[in-house]
Amino acid sequence: MKLLLLLCLFVYSVHSQEYDDYSVVLPTSGDALGPRAHRPSSGFDRYSPNQPAPPPISGGSRYRGRPSTTSTDVTTEAQTKEVQPDAGGCTHLSERMGVLCPTGCELKSTILKQERNVKTAVSKLKDDVSELSQSSNTIYRYVDGLSNAFRERQRVSNENGNVVGQYTNDLEGQHAFVKDTIDTTFPSNIRVLQGVLQSLRDKIQKLETAIMSQRTKCDKPCTVSCPIPVVSGKECEDIFRRGGDSSEMYLIQPDSFFQPYKVYCDMTTEKGGWTMIQNRQDGSVDFGRRWDSYRAGFGNIASDTGKGFCHTPGEYWLGNDRISQLTKMGPTEVIIEMTDWSGAKVQAMYQQFTVQGESTGYVLSVGRYSGTAGDTLLQGANELVGENRTMTIHNGMMFSTYDRDNDKWIPGDSSKQCSREDGGGWWYNRCHSSNPNGRYYWGGPYTKDMAKHGTDDGIVWMNWKGSWYSLKAISMKIRPFFGGAR
Ligand SMILES: *[C@@H]1O[C@H](CO)[C@@H](O)[C@H](O)[C@H]1NC(C)=O
Ligand SMILES: [Ca+2]
Prior knowledge:
Helix 1 (2-20) packs parallel to helix 4 (165-219). The protein has helices at residues 2-20, 75-79, 104-159, 165-219, 236-241, 291-296, 320-328, 376-379, 386-390, 418-422, 462-465; strands at residues 81-82, 87-88, 222-223, 228-229, 248-252, 261-266, 274-280, 298-299, 302-303, 312-313, 316-317, 332-339, 345-355, 364-371, 434-435, 460-461, 473-480. Among the domains are: 190-223; 236-480, Gamma Fibrinogen, chain A, domain 1 (Gamma Fibrinogen, Chain A, domain 1), CATH 3.90.215.10. The protein is an alpha+beta fold. Strands 5, 6, 7, 8, 11, 12, 13, 14 and 17 form a 9-stranded antiparallel sheet that branches. Bound molecules: 2-acetamido-2-deoxy-beta-D-glucopyranose (NAG) and calcium ion (CA). Calcium ion is lined by residues 405, 407, 409-411, 416-417. Residues 1-16 form the signal peptide. This is Fibrinogen beta chain.
């Protein structure tokens, strides 16, 4: 009987484990979560107001307004495309060519981790089942012996008349019950267990097949199958003026001292010519990275989903050195577009956007906001007042990563690091009103309990959605400012 109960419990727990994988903690509606974006002074420390930000580069642009007849003489050049052999992704034959690969390789390591867990669970399950089979065999033997004893007793009782009649009846009843249990319940429970085991085996089979295919894929460097357009330029505006009018991946070379690299160009939004420097859309790339990684850039530039060219941007950070160099060539504007989980879109534009070089910590300076998302970079979080708001302004800040603390939250105290708590590299103050490189949360609202350090480490734009809503998508694109384009 005890064994039966154990069996049922076991089957139940196997089933409930499967459901556990999908259970999600939903934020309760009554939760009043205050903004965690700032770190108010404790009394001992004081917040030292921002130094004035270096003015962003403005004034005469290298670019005049767009000529009204764009690209009639260069269209033939733009339309011929050339397949360029290339290697990127898991192993880069040539890092300077940029990163370009489906995220299969990151997927692989995740699957391998899961595979180990499932394997242990199944081998334990195997042991349990064989143990059960054995113990049920023992019980079969016991019942068999019982049956024999019963027959023997019956013979004796027949000989002895009704002397032990009463006792025999009892024994008969018990025997029937036990035999019934053994014959029906036990085998059916074992069948259920065997079914569970089989379905787990099937799942492992599938995982193994997936892993094998990923392994072969990652054995050799992933090759990019989509062609790189022949038309190239200093950046995407240059390419647009040379006739590159489709949004896709291009090769750019901002100046002749730098190697050319790949980048995604948006040629349709607000008249096109935008060089994408940051993109989040599905959480496929980890943005919790070191200083060196943010300096060099990381992620996947673009991919081909069957149209024959790299028209879909991946998640990436172009790299602080490249961003700085592009914005210091002349007056530059930035557009930050974002989407929530219901599909609503807003944008923030700054007509001035300059990032200084590494020696000064990639100081950010922006100016002249317009848009629908709310101005976080210059104004800080609207929901905060006084110093609490000032300490969320990003303009004038240096870049910080979890291994390089340049923020304004008690400089010098290594336990007070915005980047470590808020998930990504950014121009943190003390700490943020926007956090585009934060952790990717599925679905939008998230809570303190879900965050690694209890802080608002999601993809946050406070002046649109507050601290506790993580956006579905956000991107940053820059363009030489030439005025009057809109
Ligand atoms: C700043 O925030 C702290 C805690 O959230 C609060 O106690 C303080 O009064 C705020 N300061 C201002 C000026 O609102
Ligand atoms: Ca700090």
